[in-house]
Amino acid sequence: MATSLLSSALSIHKEGSLYWQGKSNVSLKDTSFLGVSLSDHRKSDFSKPILKTKISVGAIKSQAVATTPAINRAAPVVKKTLRKGCVVVTGASSGLGLASAKALADTGKWHVIMACRDFLKAERAAKSAGIPKENYTIMHLDLSSLDSVRQFVDNFRRSGRALDVLVCNAAVYLPTAREPTFTADGFELSVGTNHLGHFLLSRLLLEDLKQSDYPSKRLIIVGSITGNTNTLAGTVPPKANLGDMRGLQGGLNGLNSSPMIDGGNFDGAKAYKDSKVCNMLTMQEFHRRYHEDTEITFASLYPGCIATTGLFREHIPLFRLLFPPFQKYVTKGFVSEEESGKRLAQVVSDPSLTKSGVYWSWNKDAASFENQLSQEASDVEKARKVWEVSEKLVGLA
Ligand SMILES: NC(=O)c1ccc[n+]([C@@H]2O[C@H](COP(=O)([O-])OP(=O)(O)OC[C@H]3O[C@@H](n4cnc5c(N)ncnc54)[C@H](OP(=O)(O)O)[C@@H]3O)[C@@H](O)[C@H]2O)c1
C-alpha cells in the first residue's frame, strides 16, 4: 500500500503540478523549502497548483485515508527543493527591465534571461548593476522584427531551459517624431514593437509556459497609466483611442493604411499609448482564453512613474531635465528604478500575487492593489478584435 501511495505521489509529480511529497500527517511548519513553505502556499493561490492535480483526486484521497498508518511507518518525509525559476525579461538592458532582472537575480532563486536587442549594452548594464553572473543569460531579441522574435524562441528552446515566467517589458516611445518609422515587417514602430512583437513572442512561448512544472507560472505584460483614460495622466492629450481599428486591420504600414490603429494621422505619443492599451487588452484576452485550462497567471501592471529611464530619451532635453523633479515634488508620482524593479519582481514571484487577469498598481505606502482599467482598456470586444487582427498580422492565423 505504501508503495502504491508513493507511486501515486510520484505520478502526481510527473504531471508537473506537485513539488512536495510526504506523509499525510506532516505539519505545515515542516514543509518550508527555500523560504517558500506549504503554509505560505496555502495562504496564497500557490495552494492551487500544488493541491489541484490532473489525475484522479478521489483515488488519491481514498488511498490516503486507507493507508495512513502504513505511510507513517514506511514513507519518510521527502522535501523537494524548489528549483531556480527561469524568467525571460524583454528589454532588460535598462530601466524597469534591468532593475527587475537585478531584483530577481539577487534573490538567487531566479535565472534571468535578459532578452535584449543590443547584446553589448545588456552585458555592460548587467555588469554595472552587479547582477550575479551565474544568475543571468543574455539572448538576442529584437521585437521590431518578427523573424528575430521567432529566432529568439528557437534559441531559447535550444538552451534547454524551462520557461516559468515571461515578462513583456520592452518598449519604445517616440513622442517628438514627426513622421512614422517602421519595423522590419512594415508596422508603425511603437505598436509594432511594444504590442505586435510581444504578441508573437507571448503566443509562441505560451506553449513553453504550459510545460513548466513551476508552482506558479506567469505571463506579465507591462502596461501603463497613460493608456488608461480613467486617470489624470491618461487624459493628457493625445489620449489613447483604438477607434474601430481600421489602421491596425490595414497593417499600420502608412501606405495603403494609416500608421495609427484608429486610422488617424501619425502621432508618436498616441501610438505609444495605443500600444499600451493593446498590451493590457492582450493580457486580459490571454486570461479569458487560457487561465482556466493552463493555470498560468496573466497579469499587467503600472509600475509608477519612473521618470529617469531611457523611455524618455527621444523627448526634448528640457522635458528630460524637468520631468523627474516635476514627478518627485509636484505630482509625487515618482518611483525610482530600483523601487519599480522590486514591484515588477513582486508580480513575477510574490506568492500573494497569483490572481490572474489583474492590473497591479501600488499605493502611497508602496503596497500593491488591483487597479481599475479604463473602459477601453477593459473592453472585451476590443480585446477579442485586437487578438484576432494581431494574429493575422504576425502570421499566426
Ligand atoms: N518609465 C516610466 O515612467 C514607465 C511608466 C509606465 C510604464 N512603463 C513601461 O515600462 C517598460 C520599460 O520602460 P522603461 O521606462 O524601463 O524604458 P527604457 O529604460 O527605455 O527600457 C526599454 C527597454 O526596451 C528595450 N527595447 C526597445 N526597443 C526594443 C526592441 N525593438 N527589441 C528589444 N528591446 C527593445 C530597450 O532596449 P535598448 O536598451 O537597446 O534601447 C530597453 O531595454 C515599458 O513597457 C514602458 O511602457 C514605463
Automatic annotation (TrEMBL):
<dbReference type="GO" id="GO:0009507">
    <property type="term" value="C:chloroplast"/>
</dbReference>
<dbReference type="Pfam" id="PF00106">
    <property type="entry name" value="adh_short"/>
</dbReference>
<keyword id="KW-0602">Photosynthesis</keyword>
<comment type="pathway">
    <text>Porphyrin-containing compound metabolism; chlorophyll biosynthesis.</text>
</comment>
<dbReference type="GO" id="GO:0015995">
    <property type="term" value="P:chlorophyll biosynthetic process"/>
</dbReference>
<dbReference type="InterPro" id="IPR005979">
    <property type="entry name" value="Prochl_reduct"/>
</dbReference>
<dbReference type="GO" id="GO:0016630">
    <property type="term" value="F:protochlorophyllide reductase activity"/>
</dbReference>
<comment type="similarity">
    <text>Belongs to the short-chain dehydrogenases/reductases (SDR) family. POR subfamily.</text>
</comment>
<dbReference type="GO" id="GO:0015979">
    <property type="term" value="P:photosynthesis"/>
</dbReference>
<keyword id="KW-0149">Chlorophyll biosynthesis</keyword>
<keyword id="KW-0560">Oxidoreductase</keyword>
<keyword id="KW-0934">Plastid</keyword>
<keyword id="KW-0521">NADP</keyword>
<comment type="function">
    <text>Phototransformation of protochlorophyllide (Pchlide) to chlorophyllide (Chlide).</text>
</comment>
<keyword id="KW-0150">Chloroplast</keyword>
<dbReference type="InterPro" id="IPR002347">
    <property type="entry name" value="SDR_fam"/>
</dbReference>
<dbReference type="InterPro" id="IPR036291">
    <property type="entry name" value="NAD(P)-bd_dom_sf"/>
</dbReference>
<keyword id="KW-0809">Transit peptide</keyword>
<protein>
    <recommendedName>
        <fullName>NADPH-protochlorophyllide oxidoreductase</fullName>
        <ecNumber>1.3.1.33</ecNumber>
    </recommendedName>
</protein>
